[in-house]
Amino acid sequence: MQDWATQIRLTIKQLARHPRFAIVAIAILALGIGANTAIFTVVHSVLLAPLPYRDADHIVAVDTRFTNTGHLSPRVTGADFVDLRAQADTLEDLSYYDGGELGVQLRDHAVFTGVQFVSTGFPRVFGLVPVAGRLFNSDDAKRSALVSESFAEQNFGSARAALGATLRIEDVSYQIAGVLPTRFSFPSHSQVWLAAPERPESLERTAFNYYAVGRLKTGVTRGQAKAQLDSIARQLEASYPASNSGKRFVPVPLQEQLTGTIRPMLLLLLASVGIVLLIACVNVTQLMLMRATERQREQAIRTALGASPWQVAKVVVLEALLLAVCGGALGILLALPAVAVLVRIAPPDLPRVSEVHLNLWVLAFTSVLCLFATVLSALVPARRAWRMDPNEGLKQDTSRGMAGRESSRLRSALVVAEVAASLVLAIAAGLLMRTMMKLSASDLGYRSDGLLVVDADAPANGLQESLQAIRRYGTLYRDLRTLPGVEGVAGVMGLPMSNYGSNGHYGVRGRPMSETSDQADFSLSSPRYFATMSIPQLRGRDFSAADTLSAPAVAIISQSLARQSFGNDDPIGQSIECGLDSSGAATIVGVVADVRQASPGATPGPTLYMPLAQHPFYANQIHIVVRTRAHPAALIPAVRARIQALAPTIATRYTTMDNMIGESVAAQRFRTVLLAGFAGLGLLLAMLGVYGVTAYTVAQRTSEIGIRITFGADRQRILAMVLGYACRLAVAGLLLGLVLSFATMRLLAGMLFGVQPADPVTLLAGCVVILSTAALAAWLPARRAAALEPMRTLRSE
Least enclosed by CB within 10 Å: which of 50, 312, 365, 581? Predict the structure, then answer.
């Protein structure tokens, strides 16, 4: 131990005598380790850390899988849920839930928040313990509610004050029975849980209206539960062949269910930042090789005086270890603000984002990174020191360019590897950036600028209250149109980019609706909706105030639906029906242009529009769209004041159409920004490598260059010689990088829109950026070489 301590002190002194080498190496490692630590913090918190529930590994979601198509749905039907709960004894509890963002009417105000209708066993599945009050019992259905502690504090002052208070949702009153800890918000962003009947209201075996979550019994494995669910599914298939043919039930770990969609993106980012660390380690390896070349005479003398190969190599290993430890410590300091930035720019649907923080597991990961960086950085220099031949080492002369071809080739190979890795990152980032450009330029089918969007939820229960809500909204539309700068106001259920809408099968005259008929999105709208959204009316008319519940049913179809179901025939006057409700067939009175419904990258598909007034049970929770000549956000105070004055019980939330579009591509933007940042960091590190090797090569060949100039070589030729050396390395790296890029492009295929994985524009742009940056990095040492004074150089020799 004394020998090690002495050697560490000597190594620290050696690094202190070469501060530029130490600072550059530590900074490079800190960037690589810090970036990896930040991304791993997110990956660990979201994908790896256990869920914060009691025995979380026993909680499963029950999905429905269709063996004939391979399709996996995260929902179950109400009737299937009833059968599973009655027969699946491998599950200790099984509960269903369904909900979303709803308006909650309180004593003196209304709020929008996440609301879930859950069966009474829901809290037991998660092993919840209330901070105040109690959990559900069997008598609480349609009567009691649980709220989160944060909701209680915001609206009642404290958890205790919320107990016994009444809240109304869809004009049904619920009494708060208990308050749950703030950290529990399942499903994401939920704050209110309403006790629903033990038997779901919808028992149709083809209506997948519910999510199901259960807890495995102690000692039961997921494989055993799956076997029993398969057995139950086969029994139901025999009993109900029309609806349950090919249907199976799959117990999926809840953590996998929550993170399945986000996992590929996070793993892509982790792999990308891993490449950055590799580039950083290669850079440090180059620095250590240059330093080892300068010290090879010293190492040869030590070997000649009796030092063992291990004693010589140990100096290199300790030096790399100290650099890695210092780089890791600095990397953790850099990771702290980086994690905060990642959380701030994360997409809204990133699960468990509130749990992202540095912890002991992350610190352990950083320690492993430091060890990895030590091994990778010191491996080649230590091996060279171990195999040092003192006779050959004493013959080398770095000042005269005699450091050995092997050393030069190794440094060149490392530069090639750096350039190749940088090109892989640059091409991946370029493809995602091209995708974002395509998404931004895609034709949505409507004008998004100047649109204020109001989420509005009016309390309604039953036909008469729903009709009253429609009349109240009609009055509100007329009043909002009188505001200065407002050009149009309308209401819609099924606004593009929103999560509130419907879809399903439809049928036309001569082709009745069935489970094999065509499908479409269903939207309900008020008069003037298409004009307000600037959706072109291609044929026929818009809805009017005369299209009421007592009037003949009418519908408007999109261009895609007209093409899909009518071809070249005129759809005006034809009859169409859908499974939205039991209103029967409707007469088509108009055709409008297609819109991109789910996101700017969604393919415009068939859409069936119907009047809100003719489907009142869907008309209380809508979006109000307000087109204005001013900035839409500036109109929020005036719109809020009008709504509060006319209908204070309507819960509202405000945004703009541009914000909704931005949120729909938030995940794409998140990975694009991060991957572009990693690509830029990798490019910077690679160019430092190009600069370092070129500068070192010039320093080694100083006397040679002086002799060349003395014998007539002009300075342009010297400049071209040095730049040509750097460009040859860059071109070799580009060729290797292109091969690696083609091998990895398939991983990005599912994340692209309007761009092919082998996009020639992106490939060419990546190569040009890498090559031009490499030439720029080599320009300064090349200019220094060309400016050498031969007599001064030779005199110094």
Answer: 50
